[in-house]
Amino acid sequence: MKGRVAYNNLLSEGYYRLRLILPVEIKAVPGQFVMVKVSESGDPFLPRPFSIAFASENRLDVIYKVKGKGTGILARLETGDEVIVTGPLGNGFSFPSSADTKVIMVAGGVGIPPLYFLLKSLIKKKISRKRIYLFYGAKNKDSLLLTDELEALGINLFLSTDDGSYGSKGLITDFYLDRVKEIEPPAVVYTVGPNVMMSRVVEISRNLRYPVEVSLETHMACGIGVCLGCTVKPKEQYFTRLGYLKVCKDGPVFPGEYFF
In this structure, what CATH number is given to the domain that contains residue 22? Predict the structure, then answer.
């Protein structure tokens, strides 16, 4: 289907927030993604996957970083321009089974969009903001996105940058290690970001016996499980039972122990 650009705003250097108006209502779950093709001419030939940062009725937001030709074209889109959208695709995060469960999120860099959507959805479901914790880190201030909106939500928010240009200075996993011990169970953890960060989050959470859901990012060509371009191998004890997994079809959200 075609999506019409409502706005394509620069968030910080190299990062944009794109809102699309779709011809139909989109029923998306936090953690799902869409495939966006910027041109019908075949250049670039393949669509690009983007996590859904927010969806309501026929409105869809994605947040992206300009990396190559496709996202470079995307950054030049103006209000009224059209793109081709496929989705929502994949599975999403599971919601806490009990209102007493603490919700802990750990995001790294541009891993914030699906967790932002999850945050907004939890608040809409009347989950107490006092029970929601977000640990969000990035390299520097320009890479730390949506800070004004996150700070306005009234949740337990911990921000850090590697260089100290915003929030605390240091790795967000170090702050997570220090603070998570103060969060009383029951709790569930969601994490999106670089694999090395998610691996550390799973390790820390495992010691506390907190279940973790991770969202994987890989190269995708089709987004529907046909091309096998996003196939990944879980840890051996899960591989014997599950075999290879397709991030686009079986994921992108998985139990953290499958891979870390």
Answer: 2.40.30.10
Label residue 221 by pLDDT band (50, 70, 90).
confident
Residues ≥6 apart with Cβ < 8 Å to 14: 65, 66, 142
CB atoms closer than 10 angstroms to residue 202: 24
Tell me, letter by letter, the H, E, C secondary structure of 210-236: CCEEEECCCCCCCCCCCCCCCEECCCH
Structure tokens given for 1: 């289907």
Rounded to whole angstroms, how far apart are CA atoms 44 and 122?
Answer: 37
| Residue scoring higher pLDDT (85 or 43) | 85
3-class SS at 152? coil
Print the domain residue range for 81.
2-89
* Cα(203)–Cα(206) distance, integer angstroms: 5
Rounded to the nearest 5°, which phi and psi values hold at 31? 110, -20
Percent of the chain at pLDDT > 70 equals 98
What DSSP character marks residue 177?
A: H
As for how many domains the chain has, the answer is 1
Of all residues in the chain, the percent with pLDDT exceeding 90 is 87
pTM of the model: 0.95
Residue 41 in this model has a pLDDT that exceeds 80: no
Residue 12 lies in a domain: yes
Residue 124: burial class (beta carbons within 10 Å; 0-12, 13-18, 19+): exposed
User: Which are the contacts of 174, defined by CB distance < 8 A and separation ≥ 6?
Assistant: none
CA 94 to the chain's CA centroid: 14
3-state secondary structure of 57: coil
Looking at residue 40, its pLDDT comes to: 65
Inside any domain, residue 18: yes
